[in-house]
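Structure (tokenized):
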């Protein structure tokens, strides 16, 4: 079922929290929306703007966020296991303690993002823009195609299991 930003906001105002498998119409603008703790596993949020949104502690396992714009969003504690974020923009996002195991992070912009204590085990990470991204205490073990130029490493577990700090 495909819905618009207006419909999603209306349902949130009514207290609904379970949007599993929902499909948000492409190019919808949800900037600043409060999706804290919602269940959106398997949701389709491709090409959606979520600038400055609060998705902290949300459940988006297996969701599609390809080409979504999440700049400045709060994604702390979010569950994005197996999610697809192909071409997404996550500049200056808070991804503290985010769970991104097995996620597709190809052509993603993570410049200035805080990924401290995040779990990225087994993630696919090709062509990442990562200048000033904080990966302190992050677990990248088993991640594939990792090249994180200009990122901050402190007690970071690298794909090969080694620990790196800079």
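Design, position by position:
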């Amino acid at each position: 079922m495909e819905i618009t930003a207006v419909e999603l906001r209306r349902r949130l105002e009514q207290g609904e929290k379970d949007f599993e498998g929902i499909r948000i119409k492409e190019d919808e603008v949800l900037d600043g929306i409060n999706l804290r703790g919602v269940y959106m596993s398997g949701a389709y949020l491709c090409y959606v703007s979520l600038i400055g949104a609060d998705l902290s502690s949300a459940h988006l396992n297996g969701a599609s966020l390809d080409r979504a714009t999440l700049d400045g969003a709060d994604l702390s504690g979010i569950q994005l296991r197996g999610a697809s974020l192909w071409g997404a923009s996550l500049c200056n996002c808070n991804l503290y303690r985010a769970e991104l195991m097995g996620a597709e992070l190809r052509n993603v912009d993570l410049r200035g993002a805080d990924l401290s204590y995040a779990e990225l085990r087994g993630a696919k990470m090709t062509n990442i823009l990562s200048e000033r991204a904080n990966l302190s205490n992050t677990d990248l073990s088993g991640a594939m195609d990792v090249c994180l130029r200009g990122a901050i490493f402190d007690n970071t577990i690298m794909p090969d299991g080694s620990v790196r700090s800079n």
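Reviewer-requested clarification: Strands lie at 2-3, 23-24, 156-157, 163-164. The longest strand covers residues 2-3.
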